Amino acid sequence: MDRVEKLLLKAVPRLEKGDAKAAKLRERIIKLGRVLWKKSISGHFKGDGPALSKRALVFTTQNRVIQAYEPSTGRRLWSRNMGTTHLSSPAIAGRFALFGSRTKLIVVEASTGDDVWELDLDGEVASPLVANESVYALAGGKLVAVR
Description:
This protein is an alpha+beta fold. It has two helices and eleven strands.
């Protein structure tokens, strides 16, 4: 349980009871909710949202670019134009970022952007899901499981 969650669990019952200490807890929670950093990105954000590995916050943009930022500082780690007409939202598996493209499942190192492997699939590949030591994706009207 992280600090914010602990404070919220303390504050909610006190706020409901009108506890005098609730105001102080509320102030502490507000301070924890401050903006740590903010970055402009090239191209509009695309998909469901970013994915987080231990070292990289990874996302795709509408101009077919994959970008990764350091989570704690917002420093850009890398950016790659994939040159495809479609990029899905990423998924994370350990230190790897996975994306669906026009016809491929693409895997890169999340912290460097280096290619790891690609798998040709039949049709446009939707955002992959990583679970149970496998990767699941919808591709060309089929559900595909990869291990």
